[in-house]
Amino acid sequence: MHVLKYLSAGVAMTLFSAQLLAAQTPITNSQKQTANQLIETALDSDLGYDIVESLTTEIGPRLGGSEAEKRARDWGVELGKELGFDKVSIEEFTMPFWDRGQLHISLTSPYQQDLYGSALGGSAPSKKGINADVVYFRDIHALAEVKAGALKGKIAFVDGDAMVKSQTGAGYSQANMRRRVGWQHAERGEASALVVRSVGSDSHRFPHTGMMSKNEDKWAKIPVIAISNPDADHLRRLHNLDKPLSISLHSESKWKSDVSSGNVILDLVGSEKPEEIVLIGGHLDSWDLGTGAVDDGAGVAITTAAAALIAKLPKRPKRTIRVVMFGAEEVGLLGAFAYAKQHEANLKNHVVATESDFGAQTIWQLVSNVNPEATVLMDEIAKILSPLGIVRGGSDVPGGGPDIIPMARMGVPTIRLNQNGRDYFDLHHTPDDTLDKIDPDELAQNIAAYAATIYLIADSDVKLK
Amino acid sequence: MHVLKYLSAGVAMTLFSAQLLAAQTPITNSQKQTANQLIETALDSDLGYDIVESLTTEIGPRLGGSEAEKRARDWGVELGKELGFDKVSIEEFTMPFWDRGQLHISLTSPYQQDLYGSALGGSAPSKKGINADVVYFRDIHALAEVKAGALKGKIAFVDGDAMVKSQTGAGYSQANMRRRVGWQHAERGEASALVVRSVGSDSHRFPHTGMMSKNEDKWAKIPVIAISNPDADHLRRLHNLDKPLSISLHSESKWKSDVSSGNVILDLVGSEKPEEIVLIGGHLDSWDLGTGAVDDGAGVAITTAAAALIAKLPKRPKRTIRVVMFGAEEVGLLGAFAYAKQHEANLKNHVVATESDFGAQTIWQLVSNVNPEATVLMDEIAKILSPLGIVRGGSDVPGGGPDIIPMARMGVPTIRLNQNGRDYFDLHHTPDDTLDKIDPDELAQNIAAYAATIYLIADSDVKLK
Predict the structure, then answer these.
(1) What is the CATH class of A26-95+258-458?
(2) Helices A47-54 & A298-311, crossing angle to 10 degrees?
């Protein structure tokens, strides 16, 4: 009706506008209606919370390569069938297994006090236990300057600072240097062990575990232990009082023989272009200290629930929607590399890929790394997500999520629904990552955003590459 | 000058008013001015924070009867001398010593998962370790109904709920029943061990330790372990799914031979009535899991700093101000009972007693349990405290603080400067009770209130009994 009104202004003008309109709105009214319906349904649904509750309660912690992670895969398969996915499978791969074992760590001078620590992933065992004087380093830069052999018979402690809380998680990579490569400097100094301030933004007595980086295929030969922020504060205060510090520690962690892990694949087969794949997912494994609720039970729940809501629509979207529950992410993106390798020949048919792996707080931004025509599509999707409090961001998409990195490097376009990460590094890799930290309403907002976004991309003809 | 102005209105009337005024304002202008000056100085001072930083850093955790608690007494003596107290002494007493030792506790069915627990004070050792099926009790009332012998070979788990956060700490006594007497019901049932939901208002993976109650001089013969609220939630969810639960635990905690503890006494000797004592204090010992910052390094710091500020005045107040750093509070008010016994003959000269032992958040209320004339004095003091955000409360003074209970029972009048306890039971008796949890400004507000209040009582002639 409105169009008729403008016809009098000249046919050429009207045709031009209509073309412009078509280019600007690559989403049909019917698709828009469906997306809005998905949002409404998601916001009213407990499905996502039920999934993460089930995973954390019935499976518990699930370290990459463990028996628990295998139970989680079986759980994922059963869940996929229950929720009406068309194809459900496990793709196994082999991986080296790092076992945490027991740890005791305490201050022994100037007095006896337990420290709250955890071995970092890849840490070596202490064998008989170590009791040694501590050499204090204010930060990783100070440790990086240590001379060869200068730490012989000592335990190095690398301090630093608690991470500043931020929406985007800025500061993680920088803080993470002490966790990732601190051991290489400590070993050059011939230290008996390295103790590091945890990489986290909280002030609770929880260590933050996490994987170290290899040095040209070599893992640390010394124990490397992260201690909580309050414990690190304590050591710093004692150091500043010129108190001589010594620490006793015994860690059993070590590498064991290779084990199986795997990715769980749940497909909603596309109705028109089944070979084109819109890939979403989270990682199924978790660190062993908590129950992996926020990292990344939430991501598994968000993406599985979003696809399950789409599965309830009268008709499958044109393209295939694939949920991947990646295995062994925490211990080195092993599932991600296995997926990229296994599907290498078919990655050209992966329309887009994205992962939810930044907690369970609300999504605030949609970013994309796609071609100009697809950018218009993403702009339109962002408008539909706007009532959820989501704004459109630029092309700042670091790989679409950790498990997407390998396939992004191989050319798969990525988008990301950025979550508010303000509290994420309070919990990240700690014993405190448990179900009670998830707000069901915030989780539902995530599912609403994923359901609408993924549906609209999967039902579109727009190429994203 | 002002009085002269009113003389014309009639001598009788003026005299009556003056009398009324004297009854209503038992505080002189000069005293009021001094109190205000103390408040101002306290709010600008770091002394309290420096004291609690020193105690938690240089001494660390200090379990009642431990070598660390002895170091804390020496620290207290040194501090008292430095701060200009007139008399500084230690009053020793003998006490039984409970040693925590190591604990391992994990879920073993339906799968392996570490639980975050701590032995409760008075808990018995497990000897060789226990691995047993769990019998779930929704709360202490359900456990209280258990029949004799009904738990043979089992581990009882008594659930309950996280404490509701409140300004006053309401709900602690009720929640604490499972910690205090749960073991008696479990032993009647012949359980191998008792696991209890921690008594705390947080949702962090920290157990809350604390002392159990004796049963007619008998301590528990079984291990009794508190687990964190998130762990208890986890067990409840598994129980609600009808999963069979079993737990493995090994605890080394046990009673050892008697040891020495002591109270540290710091006196500012009164200038006119040195025999009359205004007693304030906190407890020097702490639980061993944290560093006892909030419980009760804060109380020691608040009361010591308040008295130290009064010590800087040009003249000592009329009455003696005594700071007591009580020993072995956590393990049964042992220092408090020792003090009351040792000073029994002189308690009649204790004008008033009060303790700071409810954390480090701001004071919001002044309550008192004193005679009517002294009530007027307290009303006037409350007016002076009003700019600090403190209101006057009634006579709801449960003993003036834990360590005041024994002497209050023996007739010593009490007051209390009630702190906001909203977050207190998040940290209470956990590993997370560390210095970073104290806000220096809130601590300074406490010191301001104590300094003004204690000065005004000590410089008064009003009897409080």
Answers:
(1) alpha beta
(2) 140
Cis geometry, peptide bond prior to residue B296 (ω within 30 degrees of 0) = yes
B73 alpha carbon, distance to own chain's centre? 18
Write out chain B residues lying below 8 Å of A110, CB-based. Answer: 58
Q: Report whether B263 contacts B64 (CB < 8 A).
A: no
Indicate the class that CATH gives domain A101-252. Answer: alpha beta
3-state secondary structure of A255: strand
**Model pLDDT for residues A225-278, shown as the tens digit of each residue:** 999 999 999 999 999 999 999 999 999 999 999 999 999 999 999 999 999 999
In chain A, where the domains are located = 26-95+258-458, 101-252
On average, the pLDDT of chain B sits at 94
- State yes or no: cis peptide before B244, omega within 30 of 0: no
- Report whether B322 contacts B352 (CB < 8 A): no
The two three-digit tokens of residue B298, written as one number = 């804060």
Stretch (H or E) spanning A117: strand A117-119
Strands (E), A6-86: none
Q: Is B233 in contact with A435 (Cβ distance < 8 A)?
A: yes
How far does the CA of residue A200 sit from the closest CA of chain B (Å)?
A: 15
Can you tell me the ipTM of this complex? 0.92
Nearest Cα residue to A97 out of A212, A210, A224, A256: A256
Q: What DSSP character marks residue A146?
A: P
Task: Please say whether the beta carbons of A100 and A253 come within 8 A.
Answer: yes
Residues near A78 by beta carbon (within 8 Å), at least 6 away in sequence: none
Contact check, Cβ <8 Å, B205/A229: no
With a cut of 70, say whether residue B19 has pLDDT above it. no
Distance from CA of B436 to the nearest CA of A (A): 7
Task: Report if pTM > 0.90.
Answer: yes
Nearest Cα residue to B71 out of B432, B325, B358: B325
> Would strands B155-158 and B130-137 be described as parallel, antiparallel, or unpaired?
parallel
Q: Say if strands A414-419 and A363-369 run parallel, antiparallel, or are unpaired.
A: antiparallel
Question: What's B24-96+258-458's CATH class?
Answer: alpha beta
Closest residue in B to A66 (Cα–Cα): B112
Tell me what pLDDT residue A396 has: 63
